[in-house]
Predict the structure.
Amino acid sequence: MSFDAPVETCKGNIREVVVGSDGRIGGEQTFPFHLWEGDIPNPPMIAMEVYDEPQPEWPEAVRKVYEDVMDDPVAWAKKCVDQFGADALCLQLRSTDPNGTDASPEDAAETVKQVAEAVDVPLFVYGTASPDKDAEVLKKVAEALPDENIPLGPVDEANHRLIGAAAMGYKKPVVAFTSMDVNLAKQLNVLLVQLGVPEDKIIMDPTTGALGYGLEYCYSIMERDRLAALLQGDDKMQMPIFNNLAPETWKAKESRVSEEEEPTYGDVETRGILWEAITAATLLLAGTDVLVMRHPRAVELVRTAIEGLQAQSKE
Amino acid sequence: MALSGLQIFKLLPKTNCKECGQATCMAFAMQLAAGKAELDQCPYVSDEAKAELGEASAPPVRRVTIGAGDMAVTIGEETVLYRHEKRFEHMPGLGVLISDEMDDAEVDGILEQLSQQEFNYVGQTLRPRVAAVKAADGAALAALAAKADEKAGAALVLVSEDAEALKQAAEPLKDKKPLLYAATESNFDAVSAVAKELDVPFAIKADSLDALADLGQKAVDGDFKEVVLDPSSATLGEVLRDQTLIRRAAVKQTFRPFGFPTIGFPCNMTDDKMQEAVFASTFIAKYAGLVILSDLDPARTMPLLYLAQNIYTDPQRPMQMDQGIYPINDPDENAPILVTTNFSLTYFTVSSEVEASKVPAWLCVMDVEGQSVLTAWAAGKFVADAIAPFLKKSGIEEKAPHKKVTIPGYVAQISGELEEELGEGWQVQVGVREAADIPKYLKQISEN
């Protein structure tokens, strides 16, 4: 006998969004890595994190990797690209946090400009999820870099008009952030489109939970996003998905607590790297298009997983 | 194809004898219809009913149990492709490969880990349970299997394609239900005969889904119920494809040859141990029933066990913490008091931030049926006239009599009312909205 493989036919596809000069994300015509039943023009992109101020609280495993560049975002960005072969970067504007350093939008924009000039890979720019401040900062970033195709986020319901308008004016993609809910994600996409943001300039951030800290919620929300987009052909859900996972996985207790404190947990560096890599690898299966990652070894592990997932002989 | 509970009920004896474990024949019929019971559990069912019901009533993915006692692993009984459609039923069994090529010390070390290793997470104990045992001949296989049973009580997978060797190893341990791995195109009859004779489960293995379907059909024709599938996928992409197509065929087409759980061997896919763990995560998320690793380093098994727990959590029943007072960082009577809800994610996020702050604190967790702060507030469960009695009865005043309590920033609006409800001497402080800001907040208030 011969097995008649059940094939799932998709009604819709994910839109392709251009990031940077020629980076492409999205475009899937089928479920994640289902190459046997549809085309996937672009594999998920890994954007390595760069911070605009030192991160002394980080666990040793990641701190020691970036110790020499912690106070220099340009050197940090170059290190990721030149040494770790980053395909993309995500500049986390942590210094603008109103509860932290509260750096000015002008300073932040200047940093973005310097980083953008120093590297030629796609650059995502992310605020601190403080809606008012993010609106000021991201607007300034858009103005300061009129010609760079830099995705700006997070954009939420509260500030979508301000950031959306700036993004439209300067032709920037936006990353629409919602709180683990399919309907809210769709609603924000609709609001942005009504405002006039082109559909192929919208990326979705569904909120990312780390392994052990809500990963399964995020996983199921993303699966439902993709079912709506592909199987039901809902064109308001056909945006690529962005997962800002590194800040979540590296603050998990399990990535930080030493083997001396918890002798049954095993080596803390291995654990921290795998916490990040396994969270990322799980998100690959749920439909991510952009993974924001930190540790170079975790990046390497996930790259190999992506290559492995793409390797499928014809049955 | 599928019959309704009522249609099934008509074919049952209707004596309500309870011997199937259900209170009534109707209840049993409903379980059958839901794919949650097997017709064999009814001792009095007629041959006629069997013929009519047998095929239709079996669950789309059959249940298989290997091992015994605490270390037993039950897999299968899955009914969906996506966890949000209902839930995934049985967490995959995580295990380790041991072989007679390893020296005794290495084997002993692994078995020691297998018998000891466990992690406590969201009130559950997670642990590896399976030893896949591989040896050159029957005597060596039997010796190694006996050792794994004796030292770790492991659920066993016996790895050999020699039916005689499998029999020699399985026979003394047959009550522990070891899995015979594996029957292939060339030895199917011999291995399945051993499985039948000893009443133990066996795996079928082939190089393509076509060939695997042929073997699956033979297993169905032979009336075997406890079977495990190995499509021998060569790459991670083929793991995803094969596991997806097997599950799809089983649940959407009731394709019986694939109506069994699966086994995967990430230990054979790479020599890089960390890469192996990442590959293993794909098996766990994508439907595998048994996942075999090359060793049990806790830094690698821990994230995998957590992942299995996460993916197999029932999405319709939020994980909850027990109501009560949780001391963090060894607090004393002056330590700040924080109150939050018993949604496990809320608890874990808050407690991990408090822990990270190194500031000692009392975390009072209130039972609001597992809802988050905002949801519980909106539902009228996390409001002043509920929180006040909870705090007063919690016994926090004996542990820390300072009468200052911090509420989550998201419910700032209830602070006045809560102060009133709590009465004389109480002060309600409004905390932060995001857990990430807790360390900063705690440092601020503990300096004052």
Observations:
- Chain A touches chain B through 57 residues (CB under 8 Å).
